[in-house]
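Before relying on records like the one below, remember that each one covers exactly one chain. Contacts with other chains, cofactors or solvent are not represented anywhere in the record.
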Amino acid sequence: MNIEVAQQLTESETDPKQPRRWQGLVEIGEVVILAIVAVATAWSGYQAARWDGRQAFLYGTASRLHVQADEADTLGGQQRLLDVSTFNTWIQAYTAGNKELAQLYVRRFSDEYRVAFDAWIKLHPFKNPDAPPGPIFMPEYHNAQSEHAAALDEEGTRDFDEGTEARETADKYIRQTVLFATVLFLIAVAQRFRYHGVRIAATSVAAVLLLFAVVGVIGLPRI
């Protein structure tokens, strides 16, 4: 009986038909998986590089806009300080009764401040205790440079946030390449086993992981 059992096991192990059948199917599956992994890995690396480039571009743009915003805000502050100083000297000339000198100071106001000054004068501020303390506190007052600085600063912040999102997207693509590398590892390990059950199991796990990784890549934004 032992001789017969050994003979049967030998015949089942050396049967050329059964191994060829499952090995052929497994090898075809492995080749398909490897092909998909190669293409998906290249695509993920390409997208990660593109998003890294976009992140660098947006960060550079954000830095430039913030610098321009600082310059505009400084210019606006200087203009506002000049208007306030001129207004103080106007008050001195006006209260002293020197109308010609007062009119000279009025002509030195900036266009934005002049609009607020005219609106402030209409409130009779020297007699009206409810009038604002100066034209700069009037709703008509606008500083074009300060407003331009605020707009530039807001745009720079928006570009910086978009750059951060681009960096996160690049990191997500890189994480997907790690999953593809794990699939390659499982396929390489599976090919070391001669037992078809273990090899099929490892290949199946690799296929499931590959599907998960491909779905993840498809769901990511692209440039």
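The two ends are 70 Å apart (CA to CA).
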